[in-house]
Specification:
five-stranded antiparallel β-sheet; 5 strands; alpha+beta; 203 residues; single chain
Length: 203
């Protein structure tokens, strides 16, 4: 029994020593250290990584596509393909076109507007592309599809780019301004877009 009490006294002494080495700091210091350690995984990322990315709206980006700021910009064809894990020829589905200020942000325009492009791909190919599918986004350079990879995103990039979807059965991108929720203007089909559609029809 004496040995048992001696062991318990020793255990209490060791425990107290571990947490109360400095009475002026005590457990408070331990809690401060724990809090600081838990925040370490965020170190090095900076404020940019904590900035919430604004969800783009189709009408807004279409208006920018048609704006005077992008009027002379090159029209670039964009599309997606479904990653199915099987080897073979990749089948790209053309979805629409993008523009960027001074033709300087083509790849970024695809990356930043990929949600809009994916949404429209499902409208164009409802039985071939589904919400659960894993997609890859790309754009045409010459006659070759290039995959849009990762790129640094400039501030307010959404103001320097625009997306226009190809016509499809729902008429999402050719609705008149009188239709609620899809109040789009027929004037959106600018001369460059008309030329592209004529080429697709004749080709």
């Amino acid at each position: 029994m004496t040995r048992y009490y001696g062991f318990m006294i020793l255990l209490v002494a060791v425990s107290t020593h571990g947490f109360m080495t400095d009475p002026a700091q005590g457990l408070v210091q331990r809690r401060v250290s724990f809090t600081s350690t838990s925040s370490l995984p965020m170190a090095g990322f900076g404020k940019d990584s904590e900035k919430k990315e604004i969800k783009l709206k189709p009408k807004q980006q279409w208006d920018r596509y048609k704006s005077d700021d992008l009027k002379g910009s090159k029209i670039v064809r964009v599309g997606v393909h479904v990653i199915d894990g099987e080897a073979g020829v990749v089948e790209w589905k053309e979805v629409g076109t993008v523009k960027s200020k001074d033709d300087s942000f083509t790849e970024i325009a695809v990356i930043r507007q990929k949600a809009l492009i994916a949404d429209h791909s499902r409208r164009m190919f409802p039985l071939q592309i589904f919400a659960k599918d894993t997609l890859e986004w790309g754009y045409m350079q010459g006659e070759e599809w290039l995959v849009a990879g990762k790129a640094a995103m400039p501030d307010d990039i959404e103001k320097l780019i625009g997306f226009q979807g190809l016509p499809e059965p729902t008429g999402f991108y050719i609705k008149t301004a009188t239709v609620k929720a899809t109040s789009f203007d027929n004037s959106a089909l600018d001369s460059g877009f008309d030329s592209l559609m004529q080429k697709r029809t004749n080709g």
